[in-house]
Amino acid sequence: MSMQKELWKGNEAIAEAAIRAGCQAYFGYPITPQNEIPEYMSRRMPQAGGVFVQAESEIAAINMVYGASAVGVRAMTSSSSPGISLKQEGISYLVGANLPAVIVNMMRGGPGLGTIQPGQADYFQATRSPGHGDGHMIVLAPASIQEAVDLMWDAFALADQYLTPVMVLADGMIGQMMEPISWKRDQPLPEVDKPWAADGRDGDGKTHFVTSLRLKSADNERFVQDLAQRYRQIQENEVRYEATDCENAEIIIAAFGTTARIASTAVRQLRADGVKAGLFRPITVWPYPDQALRQLALQDSVKAVLTVEMNLGQMHEDVRLAVRGDKPTPFYGRTGGMVPEPRDIARAAQEALQEVSE
Amino acid sequence: MKPEVIFNLDRCKGCGLCVSVCPKHILWLDETVTNIKGYHPSGISDQSKCIACGNCARICPDSVITVLKHQEEE
Amino acid sequence: MSTQVVYQRSRGLQDVETHYCPGCHHGVIHKLIAEVLVEMDLLDSAVGVSPVGCAVLAGNYFNCDFVEAAHGRAPAVATGIKRVKPEMLVFTYQGDGDLASIGAAEIVHAAMRGERFTTIFINNAIYGMTGGQMAPTTLVGQKSTTTQAGRDPLQHGQPIRMAEMLSTLDGMAYCERVCVADMGNLHRAKRAIKKAFTLQQQGVGHTFVEFLSTCPTNWGMSPVDAGKWVLSDMAKVYPLGVVKDVPKEEKA
Hints:
The structure holds 3 protein chains of 3 kinds.
Chain A: E1 6-9, H1 10-21, E2 25-28, H2 36-47, E3 51-54, H3 58-70, E4 75-79, H4 81-96, E5 101-107, H5 123-127, E6 138-140, H6 145-162, E7 165-171, H7 172-176, E8 178-181, E9 209-210, H8 217-237, E10 241-244, E11 251-254, H9 257-272, E12 277-282, E13 284-286, H10 290-297, E14 304-309, H11 315-323, E15 331-333, H12 342-357
Parallel strand pairs in A: 2-3, 2-4, 4-5, 5-7, 6-7, 11-12, 11-14, 14-15
Antiparallel strand pairs in A: 1-8, 6-13, 10-12
Helix pairs in contact in A: 1-2, 1-6, 3-4, 9-12, 10-11
Chain B: E1 2-7, H1 17-21, E2 27-29, E3 42-44, H2 55-59, E4 65-71
Chain C: E1 2-7, H1 25-39, E2 46-50, E3 65-68, H2 74-84, E4 89-95, H3 96-102, H4 104-112, E5 118-123, H5 153-156, H6 162-167, E6 172-179, H7 183-201, E7 206-212, H8 216-219, H9 223-237, E8 241-245, H10 246-251
């Protein structure tokens, strides 16, 4: 562990963090704005004794992750929005087969081919249903390169602990920018016992069959109920968020990832202008910190909870679910690759407060 | 040499592949018999002609047939 | 009196009934693979990758580890497995829709990269599990539920010869097309599997065994007639025999 600062590009820092955390296999495909991840991995993984494959597509990459995970090896992939769409079938299979995996999504503006500039419009895709069928992944939303690096350890640990895919939901800004970071953690996660892995028969000849096929509906329902039970555990134990200046605030700005970072500047501007603004920043967007948000929103001082994000209003739904109409929940967003500026967010907050008082 | 051919009749699906590969043409699907699956299982019509080649057992998709060779010790 | 076992159920198979139709060659081919795994003492270290198709339940039948793949993705799953566990004997088991249609990219690239697992390709010129639709390998004139007047080259194209096509890739080390339509071919097929697994252990690149197989139910034939059709019709479009054998060529 070192507190010394090093200058790193986001994508490369995330790749290095994965290796240091204990990732043993990376399978990926080029797509902007995360190309530096496979590029860095192609050089560093073999050095670290791990496996690197540039797959023929994002579909192939997620299935390679599935294979490696099925035999008990820590594996990850990375992509950006359109590539994540391709991975949805594979992610559903990971959920259905109880397999750990880490998927990094450097979001870009969509829909369709869209643009290569940052976006946050894959929030629904990540948090509602990563693939077809009942199921979730734990979704971590870093707001800085340092946080992304730190969260890589958590991503692999949570994946192994709960036998679930975990997504690190970042955006092109985080991937492309360079920031000084320190390696607070340096040691790989300890090996985890995986008796279910298809890495060879047990001593007594017992075979392992990793599958998500459950043709008898009753079995399938039982499986999904087990998942639901696990998700309840995750919701109780793994919620993370950061609330800044929310005590006795008059307006709470809810934002995640890069937008939250921009919003924190807006909060400072608002405070300088005499507006008691606070920032609520989920770090896990699934499970969503709805109880914490609700508690803060219900303070008598709070007049509105303004959601700000780089999409048409996706996390906004979770904010509205948390607040349940008990306070106004306005929205400000830029999308399609446009990134808001602090003064735009501050203005939106001022306008929201004005509307409320009318 | 005395061949012994054992059929696990309840597993037979009456596909007839064994009949088609018997070089002595002594296998048949007995249409007067129905096994638990509702198929006409295979059987041997003339055990004395069996040469224990094992073709029937090898081709059976369901491993219904076991072929043994009993040798009298000299 | 001594007793020799000429043949009995392989211990490479679990002692369970299969769901396969009467006379379906899946049962026969499963046995050959199981027998080879036993003879090469690989039951403990082998892992099969099952497809989406009738053989989706293969993991319930073999006495070795299995991983179920998404439709067409078995070569990618097998790549992930073999790259991280090179000491395991890894084989995929795919039908013609799985390998030649939705999974065409995956098998081409696995062969391109010379991935050191073995593909077992079950080509029965039709989509069995879903009820008899056209496969990329359906023969011209062959009826299916989506080519009810017979496959028409103008509308549906011509059948695809995967073994030959994949053998143009340098990563393909050994490729043979076999069948179990009669005993001679059955023995040849078993030898092909054994050769493929042996070459995998030697790390020579991709090994591929294509089986011309039957689907009596969707072909509308008896199992015995279906076997004959493999030899009389399918084998004319998909010639049996070794398509590529790099280790042998190198020795010459």
